[in-house]
Design a protein that fits this description.
The chain contains nine helices and no strands. By secondary structure, it is mainly alpha-helical.
Length: 196
């Protein structure tokens, strides 16, 4: 990891545009595969390429702003992942706006898109039949909630986005996003109690 910080220092102190571009390319080649793996786990398959490019471009455009310190390698990776998370959240927000007026029962947006994302995640570790049945039951339960609750709980529990990413992606305040998730969780618990 120290070599990554050496490249970053070289980029920031480089005097020629050509040299800085070469260092930026080296840095992007170094972080790109790990970020791509993260993006593939958190995006729909059709968004992965765009989100990956947006992430790497944002990193390259902002290398000058990263403050190099003694513990910079860990901080730099965290900074890169934060950018990737934001770009993933942007993609989810765009998808949400595209499908805002579409029913969750619509094959193109709802269950079909959901299962495509699930199948993409199974490449490394396929689900057992029991896990698939449990997941289908959970999806059916979520779909019986309002579209707003479905979206919130999907982002928070399935995609693992933190409150910060959700409120940034939906342009809500932090407390509003937190309360919405808590309200939706309560609705889901009530539905689950009724079913059992």
């Amino acid at each position: 990891m120290d070599h990554l910080i050496k490249f970053l220092r070289a980029y920031q102190t480089g005097r020629t545009v050509d040299f800085r571009e070469r260092m930026a390319e080296v840095i992007i080649e170094e972080v790109g595969p790990a970020l791509l793996a993260y993006i593939e786990r958190h995006c729909l398959r059709e968004d992965v390429e765009d989100v990956s490019q947006e992430t790497l471009m944002a990193i390259a455009e902002n290398l000058e702003k990263f403050e190099v310190r003694d513990d910079s390698a860990r901080l730099f990776w965290g900074w890169c992942y934060r950018i990737a998370r934001r770009k993933v959240a942007d993609a989810h927000r765009r998808r949400g706006k595209e499908s805002q007026h579409t029913s969750l029962d619509d094959e193109a947006v709802g269950a079909e898109a959901l299962w495509r994302a699930i199948e993409a995640s199974e490449v490394d570790e396929p689900m057992s039949r029991g896990e698939r049945l449990d997941l289908q039951e959970a999806i059916d339960l979520l779909k019986s909630l309002s579209p707003e609750c479905f979206e919130c709980l999907w982002k928070y529990h399935i995609l693992g986005l933190p409150f910060v990413e959700i409120w940034e992606s939906e342009e809500l305040g932090y407390d509003t996003a937190r309360r919405r998730i808590e309200r939706c969780e309560a609705k889901a618990r009530q539905l689950l109690k009724r079913k059992t």
